[in-house]
Amino acid sequence: MTFIEQIPNELYVLAMSMMPIVELRGAIPLGVSLGFSTLHSTVLSVIGNALIVPVLLAIIEPLFSRMKRLEQLRGFVERLEVRAASKVQNYRKYRLLGLFLLVAVPIPTTGVYTGCIAAVILRIRPRNAAAAIIGGVVAAGAIVFMVTEHILF
C-alpha cells in the first residue's frame, strides 16, 4: 500500500475545503462522492474551511506588504486588492454583517479567502473578522448541504 492510499478520505475533504476558490463548495460534493453522508461531508468541510481563517487573517497583510516590495508581484497584489475592494464596496456600510454575507453566499470568489482579504482592506479587527467569516462559513455550509440534499432548488 502506498503512502497516498493510507491517507484517510476525511483528510482529502478537509484539505479540499481549505483550497482557494473550491473551498467547501467543492469539498462537500467531494466527500459525498467518496461515500460520506452529506452531513459528515458538510461538517468536515466547515471545519476545514474555518481552520484556515485565523491563519489567513494573520498572514495576508504582512504577505501583501512584502509582495508589494517586489516589482514582479506588485501588480498582482494590487489587482487582487482592487478586485476584493470592488466586492467589498457593497458590504462596506455593514462591515461585519457584510463580511458575513460575503462569505455566506456560496458562489465562486466569495469565500473565506476573499472575506479575509476584505477584512484586511476594511481594517476589521481580526477577532471580529474571524467571527463574521466563520459564521459565513457555517451559513455557506448549510446552504450547500441543503442544495446537495435537494432541500433548496
Automatic annotation (TrEMBL):
InterPro entries: Sm_multidrug_ex (IPR009577)
Keywords per UniProt: Membrane, Transmembrane, Transmembrane helix
Residues in the signal sequence: none
Keyword Cell wall biogenesis/degradation set for record: no
Segments traversing the membrane: 12-36, 42-64, 96-122, 128-147
Domain of life, per lineage: Bacteria
Protein name: Uncharacterized membrane protein
Organism: Acidaminobacter hydrogenoformans DSM 2784
Lineage: Bacteria, Bacillati, Bacillota, Clostridia, Peptostreptococcales
